[in-house]
């Protein structure tokens, strides 16, 4: 099935949500055609495939569109049954991975709102991150260090990296680090381990280009407000 | 596995999220012990099992806690592999069910906020519901009528019913109907079909008791504000 099927991904090079789909496809070793979308002028196909949200990413598999990044990642894991598996087979561990992915997503949404208004993350948000730092380490890593020497990244790694993998970009652009290695040594070492993985490096957009885009977006935002 | 395992659910009788877990267990025919939580005075066990959100429902299966209602429903479907299945086996259909469940959940959150401030749902929200009315019917029901004569309710039915199954309660308490059969004939007939299912009737709290609770909550809210 994996060999002969037609797989297309509609994405945008800097989108952290499209990155999730790209990374899942890479890790599973699935060949696909990539269509870069201009978000100011979306393609007819994108609007046809995702009439509800009109957003990237959209995965099109044998003509059938799948939307929403986390649903796409689960779909990829289920439609291509060969290993590596992105989610654990064990239902309890799977539930744990889904739980922490949803939790990290909630934190990142609060963080994203803070960054848009260019205010520092609140202490309340930092405390929510303390919970992730402490409990993910204990529950999923048995207090050990994350490593990808013997295993490929999976669903939860993809979610973490898409949300917090570019904190050095945020630091350079906003002038402060949304989270730091002193307070979050476990999460930081996890992200650093992911940065060494070839598939992760393949799909990560160049830092300079992202910063250039952020400057352009800020200018455009200030222009709209003026 | 289903026969010999220990299954406990921590819930609260009127919680629509606990209802999801109860309904999933009923439909799968899983015996369980039920622990009613007093949300003003939560049990030590609840706080120990769900230290992050401290909320019901929590499912405890052979000593392992699973939290968050949608994760619990997926867990139940995966840990008890016998039919009926709550999610379709086909990955594409599964992705569609997950997509629409998330969409309905988003609408219900907006609706919930409107109800808390006792304001009518906005036209924008009603339009979002139009999208669900039209597209779920076309994509998942081939424009036919929902029926549970030959099939048990599944994941998406559980989500829909938990969110919009008590609109008659809302009508009686708030004095207006959050959604009506004229504008949403498909969603209304779907919910009505679900109301005929014995497992659904088993887990639905009595309307009078829910309205009594809503009155008490309003009094307590007004008292806090005074």
TrEMBL record, chains A, B:
Primary subcellular site in the record, as a coarse category: cytoplasm
EC number(s) on file: 2.5.1.18
A GO BP entry: glutathione metabolic process
Leader sequence segment: none
InterPro entries xrefs: Glutathione-S-Trfase_C-like (IPR010987), Glutathione-S-Trfase_C_sf (IPR036282), Glutathione_S-Trfase (IPR040079), Glutathione_S-Trfase_N (IPR004045), GST_C_Tau (IPR045074), Omega/Tau-like (IPR045073), Thioredoxin-like_sf (IPR036249)
Alphabetical keyword list: Cytoplasm, Transferase
Gene3D superfamilies to which the protein is assigned, alphabetical: 1.20.1050.10, Glutaredoxin (3.40.30.10)
SUPFAM superfamilies per UniProt: GST C-terminal domain-like, Thioredoxin-like
Gene Ontology MF term list: glutathione transferase activity
Pfam family, one: GST_N
Cellular component, GO, one term: cytosol
Localization per Swiss-Prot or TrEMBL: Cytoplasm, Cytosol
Catalytic reactions of this protein: RX + glutathione = an S-substituted glutathione + a halide anion + H(+)
Function: Is involved in the conjugation of reduced glutathione to a wide number of exogenous and endogenous hydrophobic electrophiles.
Protein family (similarity comment): Belongs to the GST superfamily.
Protein name: Glutathione S-transferase
Species, as recorded: Chenopodium quinoa (Quinoa)
